[in-house]
Amino acid sequence: MSRSVLCRKLNKGLVSSRAFFSPLNVPKLNDEQLAKLLQCDFITRSSYILSAYIGDEMPLEQVTECVKQAFNFPLVVRPIEENIASLELYHGPTLAFKDFGGRFMAQILAQIASNQPITILTATSGDTGAAVAHAFYRLKNVQVIILYPKNKITPLQEKLFCTLGENIHTIAIKGDFDDGQRLVKQAFDDEELKRLLCLTSANSINISRLLAQICYYFEAVAQLAVENRQQLVISVPSGNFGNLTAGLFAKAMGLPVKRFIAATNVNDTVPRYLSEGKGVA
Questions:
Q1: Is residue 216 a contact partner of residue 30, using CB atoms and an 8 Å limit?
Q2: Which residue of 119, 146, 190, 200 has the smallest Cβ count within 10 Å?
Q3: What confidence score (pLDDT) does residue 276 get?
Q4: CB–CB of 114/144 below 8 Å?
């Protein structure tokens, strides 16, 4: 696969059928490879994981540089009580786990897009907008347009991405996050608009974000004592299940996870779809 193929997939974000790109094959780790990987530091391990997906389209050294720039804040597994711990993913610049995916996507696009102008169009319910805005802020040849539901995010979230200016453009819409996501999907269905603006998406449907999120599941296991890595159950706060999908990729690679719990709240679009067979248009 050529570098141009990777570039097209990262730039498009969505395919015409409104599905997202996914690897045809998941890299598999045997027990020896997994044990060695879990002994590595976070940057080295993450670079190896991401290179396993990217293949020969980008040298390992280049991937490592992207990872260093993107993942430059700590991750902590914080014990709560016996056999229960929390993986703290809020130490990034916008205090959300989405900093991982947003910042890696920004770094990788900067490497492969060269001087090609790009327009990032994304919808947010708060966290994504802030993470994407800060990740792409002042990045050369990139314009970012963020749609968010008016009066339905916190003042802090709004200030995090509405006060930057320059190449970050924000639009408050009437409705909720699903309405914003619907507008994004409509834009991607417009071939002329995509061509004129060189549109790509920074929502969790973009494969570069999903790949980046695989890395912190490995880090969570690496921080556990070896004897505590068996019978591991991970509960994942879930909205549109992008975070959970990254965890499933990690498990498919060989990470020793017994099972996942998809923890949802009133943002229950996916559970409603599974129970009623009705999704967002």
A1: no
A2: 190
A3: 87
A4: no
Which of 219, 237, 251, 224 has its CA nearest to residue 100?
219
Cβ(185)–Cβ(149) below 8 Å = no
Tokens of 172: 């408050």
Tokens encoding 90? 């809020």
Q: Quote the crossing angle between the two packed helices 98-112 and 207-222, to the nearest 10°.
A: 130
pLDDT digits (tens, 9 = 90+) for 174-192: 998 889 989 988 998 899 9
Task: For the chain, list the domains and their CATH numbers.
Answer: 3-14+25-227 (3.40.50.1100)
Say if residues 18 and 189 touch (Cβ distance below 8 Å): yes
Angstrom distance (rounded) from CA 212 to CA 180: 24
Phi, psi of 263 (to 5 degrees): -90, 115
Cα(145)–Cα(76) distance, integer angstroms: 32
Question: Phi-psi bin for 151: left (phi > 0), alpha (psi -120 to 50), beta?
Answer: left
Which tens digits make up the pLDDT trace of 6-44? 545 555 555 554 567 788 889 999 999 999 999 999 999
Instruction: Give catalytic residue positions.
Output: 98
Who contacts 65 (Cβ-Cβ below 8 Å, separation ≥6)? 107
Residues constituting the chain: 281
231 sits in the region (left: phi over 0; alpha: psi -120 to 50; else beta) called left
pLDDT at 1: 38
